C-alpha cells in the first residue's frame, strides 16, 4: 500500500513557476542540482526550440490566481519568494547567459512553459545574444547625513524672532548646499563609472523604508560590464568611494543583467565612444 | 588633505569585500542585497511575458504601495529641486523624449 506522497512526483500538468530563460546547451542542469524555488520545489530546465526555461512545479493552493494575489499582499511572503526567485535566477546564470523572467510568471503545465518559449523566442534570443558574457553591477550613492544640528528652539522673546528666522534660513541654505554637493558627487560618480561600463541604467532613488538605510540615496544605478572586467570595475567603485567627499558608495553584484534585458538604443554607442576615448 | 581611512570611518567602507568571487554569479552573497535591490529587479526588470495565471502586479495593493515607496523618493527629491537625472539626455529617456518633441538634435 505504498503510494508516493502527493506532491512528491511533479505533475507535468500542474502549475509551473518560470524563473529564467537560457540557451539549450545542457549547462544549466548541473548548476540547478539541489536548487530550491519559491515553493521549496526542485527546479529544472524545460527545453524547446533551442531555448530552455528554468521552472519549478508549484501548488495551485498558493500560486493559482486567487491565492497568489492574496499572498502577494503580504510583505513577508513577497520577500521570501523574491529572494528565492533571485537565487534561482543566479544559479541558472552561473557561467552562462540568462534572461530573467519577472516575478510571479506562472504557466499551466510544461505545455504552458513551451508556449511561453515560443511566444517570447525572438525576444529571449535577442537578449541572450546581446547580454552574453556580461554582468550587472549596482551602485548606490548616499549623501552623508547632516551633522547633528543645534536644536532650533522657538523664539521666546520678541527680539529673538528675527534671530530664529535667520537661523532657520541658514539651516535651509546649509541643507541645500549639502544636496548640491551630493548631487555633484553623484553626477561625478555616474560619469566616471559610465566610462568603464558598456551601458548604464538609472533607477529611482530608494526609499529608506525599503532599503533600511536612513541616508539619502542620491544615485541608484546599474552598470553593464563584461564579466572578465568585474574585478576592475569593483576596484574603480572602491576608488571613487575613497575619493568622493560627502558621499558614500555601495556596490551590489554581480547580478544577472536584469536592468538591461530591455534594449535601449542610445547607450551602446556612447559607451563605446567613451571607451575609445579613454583607451578602453 | 584628509584622505579617509576606510576602516575607521563610517563612510568610504571598502567594497573589496564585495569583489566577485570565483565561480560567477552563483557565488554572490545574496543575503547582502537589501529588499529594495531585489524587488526593483525581480518585480520591475527582466522579461515581462504573460504566463497562464494572469495577475496584474499593479493591482496588488501592497505592491502598489511598495512601488510607490520606490517612486516617492524621486518626488521628494524633486520637491527639493533635485532632478538632475531628468534633464541630461544622456541619463534620462524622459529628457530624450523632451528633446525629440522639441526637435533638438542629439549631440
From TrEMBL, chain A:
4Fe-4S found in the keyword field: no
Compartments (UniProt record): Gas vesicle
Basic and acidic residues: bias regions: 172-185, 267-280
Protein keywords: Gas vesicle
Spans annotated as Disordered: 143-185, 260-280
Species for this entry: Streptomyces coffeae
UniProt family annotation: Belongs to the gas vesicle GvpF/GvpL family.
Superkingdom classification of source: Bacteria
Protein name, entry field: GvpL/GvpF family gas vesicle protein
Classification via InterPro entries: GvpL/GvpF
Taxon lineage: Bacteria, Bacillati, Actinomycetota, Actinomycetes, Kitasatosporales
Amino acid at each position: 500500500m505504498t503510494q508516493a506522497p502527493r506532491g512528491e512526483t511533479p505533475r507535468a500538468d500542474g502549475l509551473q513557476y518560470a524563473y529564467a530563460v537560457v540557451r539549450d546547451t545542457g549547462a544549466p542542469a548541473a548548476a540547478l542540482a539541489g536548487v530550491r524555488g519559491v515553493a521549496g520545489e526542485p527546479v529544472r530546465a524545460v527545453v524547446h526550440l533551442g531555448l530552455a526555461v528554468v521552472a519549478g512545479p508549484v501548488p495551485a493552493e498558493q500560486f493559482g490566481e486567487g491565492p497568489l494575489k492574496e499572498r502577494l499582499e503580504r510583505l513577508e511572503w513577497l520577500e521570501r519568494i523574491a529572494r528565492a526567485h533571485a537565487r534561482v535566477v543566479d544559479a541558472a546564470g552561473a557561467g552562462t547567459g540568462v534572461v530573467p523572467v519577472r516575478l510571479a510568471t506562472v504557466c499551466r503545465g510544461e505545455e504552458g512553459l513551451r508556449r511561453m518559449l515560443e511566444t517570447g523566442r525572438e525576444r529571449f534570443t535577442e537578449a541572450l545574444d546581446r547580454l552574453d558574457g556580461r554582468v550587472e553591477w549596482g551602485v548606490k550613492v548616499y549623501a552623508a547625513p547632516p551633522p547633528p544640528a543645534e536644536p532650533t528652539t522657538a523664539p521666546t522673546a520678541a527680539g529673538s524672532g528675527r534671530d530664529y528666522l535667520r537661523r532657520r534660513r541658514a539651516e535651509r541654505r546649509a541643507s541645500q548646499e549639502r544636496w548640491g554637493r551630493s548631487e555633484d558627487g553623484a553626477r561625478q560618480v555616474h560619469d566616471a563609472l559610465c566610462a568603464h561600463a558598456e551601458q548604464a541604467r538609472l533607477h529611482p532613488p530608494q526609499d529608506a523604508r525599503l532599503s533600511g538605510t536612513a541616508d539619502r540615496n542620491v544615485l541608484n544605478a546599474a552598470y553593464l560590464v563584461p564579466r572578465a572586467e568585474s574585478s576592475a570595475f569593483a576596484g574603480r567603485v572602491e576608488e571613487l568611494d575613497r575619493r568622493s567627499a560627502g558621499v558614500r558608495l555601495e556596490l551590489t553584484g554581480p547580478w544577472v543583467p536584469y536592468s538591461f534585458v530591455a534594449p535601449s538604443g542610445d547607450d551602446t554607442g556612447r559607451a563605446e565612444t567613451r571607451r575609445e576615448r579613454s583607451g578602453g | 588633505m584628509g584622505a579617509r581611512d576606510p576602516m575607521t570611518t563610517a563612510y568610504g567602507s571598502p567594497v573589496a569585500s564585495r569583489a566577485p568571487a570565483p565561480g560567477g554569479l552563483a557565488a554572490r552573497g545574496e543575503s547582502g542585497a537589501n529588499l529594495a535591490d531585489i524587488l526593483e529587479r525581480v518585480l520591475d526588470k527582466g522579461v515581462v511575458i504573460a504566463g497562464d495565471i494572469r495577475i496584474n502586479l499593479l493591482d496588488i495593493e501592497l505592491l502598489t504601495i511598495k512601488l510607490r515607496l520606490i517612486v516617492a523618493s524621486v518626488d521628494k527629491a524633486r520637491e527639493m529641486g533635485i532632478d538632475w537625472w531628468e534633464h541630461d539626455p544622456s541619463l534620462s529617456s524622459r529628457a530624450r523624449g523632451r528633446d525629440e518633441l522639441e526637435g533638438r538634435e542629439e549631440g
